[in-house]
Every structure is written in C-alpha cells, then in structure tokens.
Amino acid sequence: MRVAMIGSGYVGLVSGACFADFGHEVTCVDKDERKIDALNRGEIPIYEPGLDVLVNGNRFAGRLSFTTDLSKAVAGADAVFIAVGTPTRRGDGHADLSFVYAAAEEIAAAITGYTVIVTKSTVPVGTADEVEAIVKRVAPDADFSVASNPEFLREGAAIDDFKRPDRVVVGAEDERARDVMRALYRPLNLNETPLLFTNRRTAELTKYAANAFLATKITFINEMADICEKTGANVQDVARGIGLDRRIGSKFLHAGPGYGGSCFPKDTLALVRTAQQFQSPTRIVEAVVEVNAARKKRMVDKIEEACGGSVKGKTVAILGLTFKPETDDMRDAPSLDIVPGLIDRGATVKAHDPQGMKEASHVLPQSVVYCDSAYQAAGRTDAVVIVTEWNEYRALDLVRLAGEMNEPVLIDLRNIYSMDEVKAAGFTYMSVGR
After folding, report:
1. Given CB 3.0 to 4.6 Å as the disulfide criterion, which of 180, 267, 317, 425 pairs with 398?
2. What distance in Å separates the CA atoms of residue 113 and residue 144, rounded to the nearest whole number?
3. What is the assigned CATH class of domain 293-430?
4. What's domain 2-198's architecture?
5. Sheet arrangement for strand 369-370
6. Which of 353, 418, 412, 404 is nearest to 386 (CA)?
C-alpha cells in the first residue's frame, strides 16, 4: 500500500515508521523544513525508545521518506492519514481543529484516484463528517472515503503499542474504506489483534472515552491517597487490594502528583466541552479535570510541609521534569506547576532529567539550574523531590545522596522507595498516601 502521513510529530512519525516496517511505502509530510531536513539526515526530533533504529532502517530500505511537498506525497496514495496537532483552543477548552481542516483542504486538491482519508489525530465527535464536507467542497469530483482511526500510543512504549496493540479501532461508513484499512493492518493478523469496525462518530468518541477513563482511575487513586494520609492507611496496599479485582485491574492505580502529557489533559477537557456542546454534561470527567489541576499545584504545599513549613531561602533539587519516564515530553508535566510554585515561594531550584532538560529549559523559569546527574542536583540542597520515576532514580545510593545535601529531606512523589530503606539512610522522608 502507498501511504501519506500528514504531520511528522509524535503520532505521525511513529505511525509512519511502523506502517513502513509492515512493508508499506510511506511518505511523511511536514511543513517544518528543518524537521524534514533533520529526518532526511537520520536525526530524530523526539525521544522515543527504538524510534531512531526503526526510522532509519526503513529509510535505508526505501520504504520511508520525508518531504514538505504534500501534493506529491498524496498523489497516488491509497490512504492519507491526518496526524496533525489538535491542541486545546485558547479561551474555551475545545480542541483546535484548524490544522486538521487545513490539511483536509490541501489533501482534497491533491488526491488522484480512490483514496481513503483517515483522521489519526485525536478529534471530537463529528470531525470526520466535517473533513468529508471540506473535501467535497474543494474537489466535488474526487473519489474518496473518510475514516477515523484513533491512536492509542503510550509515550515511551509507542512502537510496541502500534505493533502489538490491544485493538485497532476503525470508524468507516463504507466497505471500500474498510477493505483499505484491513489491508493496512493485515500484518497484525499474525497476532490475532482485534480490528474493531464502527461508524466514524463512535471511533472518535472511543478515543476520548478511553483517555477519560484512564485519567479517572489516576485521579481516583490520588484522592484515595489523600484519605490514606489522613487515616494512616497505605495507598499502595489499597491499590493492590482493589487492583486484584479483575473488574478493576491494577493499571493506572499509582498515586502521584497528577497526570500530564500530550493526551490526558487536553482530551479530558475536550470531552467535557463536547459533552456540554451536545447538552450531555459529564460530571465525573469535569471533576477529574478540576481535581487533577488542583493536585499538581498542591504538591508545592506538600514539599513546603516536608521542609518545615517554608521553602523560602532554601535550595530544592527536582529529579525528573518530563510528565513520565522514557520521553522528553514536557506537555502539562507536573513539574510545570511544581518548579514555578517553589520559585514563587522563594526557593532556589536545581534540576535533573535524563532526557527532558533541553525541552524544560524552554518552558521553565530561567533561574532553574540544570545538573548532569541526580547527585550533582542534590549537592548543597535542603530537599530532594522525585517528580518523574525514571529508572535511574529507582536505585540511587541513598547514603551518598544524603551526604551531598545540607539537610537530608526526600519527598518521593512517585513512591518508588520503601520508607524503611530511606529512613535507614538518614532521610526525613515524605511520600504519597503512605
């Protein structure tokens, strides 16, 4: 199959590389000339484990190419995926679909022969209908179908998620489109991956529903953690106790500083706005959005409490800046609330992250001091805060870490250490829900 991937960001690049690895001929398109030039040199603009090998292997094999010329990529393609950004729109919280609609207009002017136009971007219910209307307006005689194929990729595990997914959801209104999508995903038949066909609106809502449910699980266990702190219970044991129930499951029951990233914050908010638009408000999801936003800010209070009630004039080390491990993504990371909050209250902040410091330097206050290691960050500090659970933070030499500090205070917002081992190293220790 010939595939054009419009948008070479996280979703577009991973999806394009994986489709190429399935044996399809894929052209990734982006308006950013510097990004395309870098990709053609073999340089990967994002950090995702294994992506550099996958991209360059298929590039050298001739199955994957990169261009700024949308028309050339789309002409003759069997399927054209729209994988552009849908950020939160300023002012009202709805998803900004301007990039999706602009791509649809350009695609309409370039398609030749029967083409399936697929929305891969996360979009509200009814977007595929609007894309169809745009294409018909721009190219009334075009032979095409529009399908919805939402992505369910976890940053840090995206390649495995694409190649070994729990399911593939496709929203399509006609059999020709379904046949093309079956052919694209045929390699997954070996894994007996469920290929779920629905109508387009169902597929679009499925993506939002999935993310909202997972965000709800995270927010629920965080509220249970607050109750645990008040009552003397242990949230990790609570999570095990309910997670062993197969109706609930153990995933996404890890208490922490709140969810972040490129999906959950914007998708939960977009679902709230869509529900309000259709006069079917989602009170649960509305509460999740509100509680999570407040939780990230409240972590500053928790750090102050561990520091004796104030961080004014103190130096605090932050370990982990990205919203999760194995990515350099800073979007809606808890550190974006925690670090400025500490600085506003008079603290000096030192920081370390294995992959995120370059991105962090663009979005955090300029006064942050970036360090080459966790131990360097801890040097002469009054507290160390673990914000992101990178593997290299899970086995720190705690005695050495304490020895680097003015005051051995450790605030573990991810509960990666046992209380006994940390206290044995001489720390004053605070975790979440324990």
Report:
1. 425
2. 8
3. alpha beta
4. 3-Layer(aba) Sandwich (3.40)
5. 369-370, 348-352, 315-319, 383-386, 409-412, 428-430
6. 412
The residues that are catalytic are 263
Q: Determine the Cα–Cα distance for residues 196 and 203; give it in Å rounded to an integer.
A: 9
Cα 191 to chain centroid, rounded = 25
Rounded-to-integer distance, Cα 218 and Cα 296, Å: 13
* pTM of model > 0.70: yes
Determine the angle formed by the axes of helices 200-231 and 127-138, rounding to 10 degrees. Answer: 150
- Report d(CA 301, CA 308) in Å as an integer: 11
Q: What is the pLDDT of residues 136-157, one digit of tens each?
A: 999 999 999 999 999 999 999 9
Q: In the chain, what are the domain boundaries?
A: 2-198, 208-290, 293-430
Whether residue 40 is predicted with pLDDT greater than 90 in this model: the reply is yes
Q: How many residues does the chain have?
A: 434
For residue 92, pLDDT beyond 90: no
Tokens 């600085």 locate to: 343
Taking the C-alpha atoms of residue 163 and residue 182, their distance in angstroms, rounded to an integer, is 15
Cβ-based neighbours of 396, under 8 Å, separated by 6 or more: 374, 375
Among 398, 395, 429, 396, residue whose Cα is nearest residue 411: 429
Whether the predicted pLDDT of 74 surpasses 90: yes
| Mean residue pLDDT across the chain | 96
Q: What is the DSSP letter of 379?
A: T
Question: Do the beta carbons of residue 85 and residue 7 sit within 8 Å?
Answer: yes
Per-residue model confidence (pLDDT) at position 399: 96
**What is the CATH number assigned to the segment(s) 208-290?**
1.10.1040.10
Distances (CA, A) of 27 to 38, 191, 414: 15, 26, 40
